[in-house]
Design goal:
The chain is of the alpha+beta class. The chain has 15 helices and 14 strands. The strands form two sheets. Strands 1, 2, 3, 4, 7, 8, 9, 10, 11, 12, 13 and 14 form a twelve-stranded mixed sheet that branches. A two-stranded antiparallel sheet has the order 5-6.
Length: 444
């Protein structure tokens, strides 16, 4: 939609219905209008606020949208309301908790400039290179039946540069880094305070550590976390081992397991890892039963009675968060808004997350309405393109068939030919008069 110079006459009903649940949070003049316009633009993949004001006829001015993004505490209020609304809509989370799980992961959003809040140079373990940009950590709830993740809580990871106060004579700055697992625990606490149950937590190997696992145990979370192959097994039962995982599982017999009718072969054992306070169940998964085939993944769980197939299923459910990151960057303009301050950046990220939630709920509603319970949801990209096409069709029809309508007159006023070659400060804006007259007539 960002490449199509056709105005959007009205907000899609799907977006409007969801945004109405935030209306009481935005009492400031123009805030709700800005919120609806920004959510609609994120669904359509438009990040430039000039394009939003130009092509979305229900959008306010650029200055009003900038004021909304930079308003204090809006991001925090939006996030809290988003969690409560999500819990009320997905009422099956409490009645059927076995259908859901939490997934935790972070992603890098590159930026070319360094003058934005929260932009640092991060090491990308996937590409083995350094990336300048934001690192965003997300906690999402996964519908295992539909393999769909909805973001529940998120935060931009940052580093603080402050002086080392331990030595008064040392004025050199000390780099303080907040670990990702600490942020993840804080977000999980926020999710619990919103009323969510203690669902199983899944994460990749970068989150596995004694501090994080102990904290999950203390909070009562079941977890399935990938483990690196070089972790040392301290004891197996009463026997001291002192071997790496990859060496310990070389001669272990593998049994056939299934996840959604897909076969794998796994070995499982209850051990105590080095530096660990309690025993965990380790599951080693391979593609073939013969021992010549190397194990491609190891998973640790604090649920010692769970079987290998169940642990493998929870680990596969985590992949939905990777799909979420791809779609946020591809369709929902994550990190593309031209803002710099902390509040503006956090609100812009929340806008992208809420826009994705709108589409996710539509995916689940459409799939649950089908008689076949195993049907896969419609891809998010298909729903987005369908919304774009429907809006494009309605806009063309209204502009062509109803030339006397107020929205059409406002459109022609906004696209006055006299304004095309003039500076923004010198442009005529008769559309404001039209909107004012329409408001006065409605009030009368």
């Amino acid at each position: 939609m960002s490449h199509v110079s056709v105005p959007v006459v009205e907000c899609p009903k799907l977006v409007r219905d969801f945004c109405d649940g935030f209306k009481d949070l935005l009492p400031i003049k123009g805030a709700y209008q800005s919120f609806v316009a920004l959510i609609s633009a994120a669904v359509f993949g438009v990040a430039n606020m000039s394009d939003i004001a130009r092509y979305f006829l229900f959008a306010p001015s650029v200055s009003q949208m900038c004021a909304f993004l930079s308003a204090k505490d809006f991001a925090e209020q939006l996030n809290r309301r988003h969690r409560r609304r999500l819990l009320s809509i997905l009422n099956k989370i409490k009645s059927h908790p076995e259908r859901y799980q939490f997934a935790i992961d972070d992603t890098l959003v590159p930026h070319s400039g360094r003058n934005m809040w929260g932009v640092y140079t991060w090491y990308d373990h996937t590409n083995k290179s350094y990336v300048t940009g934001h690192k965003i950590l997300v906690v999402g709830v996964v519908d295992k039946f539909r393999n769909v993740l909805i973001p529940v809580a998120w935060e931009i990871l940052h580093r603080d540069l402050s002086k080392d106060t331990s030595d008064p004579e040392n004025e050199a700055p000390k780099r303080l880094h907040e670990n990702g697992w600490q942020v993840a625990l804080r977000l999980l606490d926020q999710v619990l305070s919103s009323g969510f149950p203690k669902l199983p937590v899944s994460a990749d190997s970068w989150f596995h550590g004694e501090n994080f696992c102990r904290a999950l145990d203390e909070r009562g979370f079941p977890y399935v976390i990938e483990v690196k192959s070089n972790r040392i097994i301290e004891t197996h039962g009463r026997k001291k081992i002192g071997q790496k995982l990859k060496d310990f599982f070389k001669d272990k017999v593998r049994k056939l397991i299934f996840f959604k009718n897909r076969p794998k072969y796994a070995s499982e054992v209850v051990v105590k890892l080095r530096d660990s306070a309690s025993q965990v169940k380790i599951v080693a998964v391979a593609n073939r039963p013969d021992l010549d085939d190397d194990v491609f993944a190891y998973y640790a769980s604090n649920q010692l009675t769970w079987g290998a197939a169940k642990i493998w299923g929870y680990s596969r459910g985590r992949w939905a968060i990777e799909v979420q990151f791809r779609e946020l960057k591809q369709f929902f303009a994550l990190g593309e808004a031209a803002v710099r301050s902390q509040q503006s950046i956090e609100t812009a990220v929340s806008i992208s997350m809420i826009a994705l939630t709108v589409i996710r709920l539509e995916q689940l509603a459409d799939a649950d309405s089908q008689s076949n319970q195993q049907i896969r949801p419609i891809p998010a990209g298909v729903i987005v393109r369908d919304l774009q096409m429907q809006s494009l069709t309605r806009s063309i029809l209204k502009l062509a068939v109803y030339p006397q309508r107020q929205t059409v007159q406002a459109f022609h006023a906004r696209y006055n030919r006299q304004n095309l070659n003039t500076k923004p400060a010198e442009r005529r804006r008769p559309c404001r008069t039209l909107y004012y007259q329409a408001g006065q007539a409605k009030a009368a």
